[in-house]
Amino acid sequence: MNEVKSMGTAVVTGASAGIGALYVDRLARRGYDVILIARDEARLNKVAGRIGEITGRTLTVLRADLNDRADLRKVETLLRTNQSITMLVNNAGFGSVASLLDADIDKMEDMISLNVTALTRLTYAAVPGFVARGDGAIINISSIVGIAPEVLNGVYGATKAYVLALAYSLHKELAGKGVRIQTVLPGATATEFWDAAGFSHSDMPASWVMKAEDLVDAALAGYDMGELITIPPLQDGGDWTLFEAARRELSTKFQQSKPGARYCNPDNI
User: Fold this and answer.
1) Contact at 8 Å (CB) between 59 and 28?
2) pLDDT tens digits, 198-245
3) Which residues contact 171 (CB under 8 A, 6 or more apart)?
4) 3-class SS at 262?
5) CB 23 within 8 Å of CB 89
6) Are the CB atoms for 89 and 12 separated by under 8 Å?
7) What CATH number is given to the structural domain containing 78?
8) What is the DSSP letter of 118?
9) What string of DSSP letters covers 81-113?
């Protein structure tokens, strides 16, 4: 396994299980050393030990709660100072299926803090070094609810829409600077996510739920294809191409000094 070309070091958040642990496995097999970050150190050690033995790569565990300011700063410092880091996978996050009337606002605030604030701060910590070295990649895990926020909890959908919007901006700013951006939009995936969200994926039709292994392998295939946005459950990529073309066309029609005619009807004044 050591004959695989070294790809530098990848940092994976939310790496103790599910999608994050699978990214650790797949990236190690591709030749990355990996720094695993999550709250549960025992589970991190188990993942690192198993994958390190299989791949022969160097896997390092860093216990951190990204909703804790001191722990978040610790990870930011790592990203700023460790020049071997060539990839950041922002996977840590959680969701909810609760309606506005049923949701705990403190939990919603925690969701925003992890899904948006921590992801943003880690991205901002990693990018300057990537740009200086002319090499690096950011993979952010969003969700299909970033496009379809009506599907689950509205705050969760809003946090994932933020991640999608950030992708476009990062791509524009970093084009030509040697930094790759990819945002992955999973659909329903068989992971522990649903337990934390308050709903079991086993209660959904099996045809809706993707295996986590298939999700990560498809996401990395999209990465290899150079995709900015990767949506593994979308069967026809042409649908996304049409959606993107319509969005970009619409965005060219906003530079106007006067309101649209529909707002200027005297009968409405």
Assistant:
1) yes
2) 555 565 567 779 999 999 999 999 999 999 999 999 999 999 999 999
3) 181, 228
4) helix
5) yes
6) yes
7) 3.40.50.720
8) I
9) H-TTEEEEEE---------TTTS-HHHHHHHHI
C-alpha to C-alpha distance for 210 and 97, rounded to whole angstroms: 18
Domain extent at residue 231: 9-268
Across 109-127, average pLDDT: 97
Catalytic residues: 156
Q: Are 94 and 119 in contact (CB under 8 A)?
A: no
Distance between CA 139 and CA 142 in Å, rounded? 10
**Please, how many CA atoms are within 13 Å of residue 91, restricted to the half-sphere of its CB?**
29
How far lies 98's CA from each of 77, 91, 141, 185, 264, in Å?
A: 35, 22, 21, 21, 40
d(CA 251, CA 56) in angstroms, rounded, equals 48
Residue 4 lies in a domain: no
For residue 2, being part of any structural domain is answered with: no
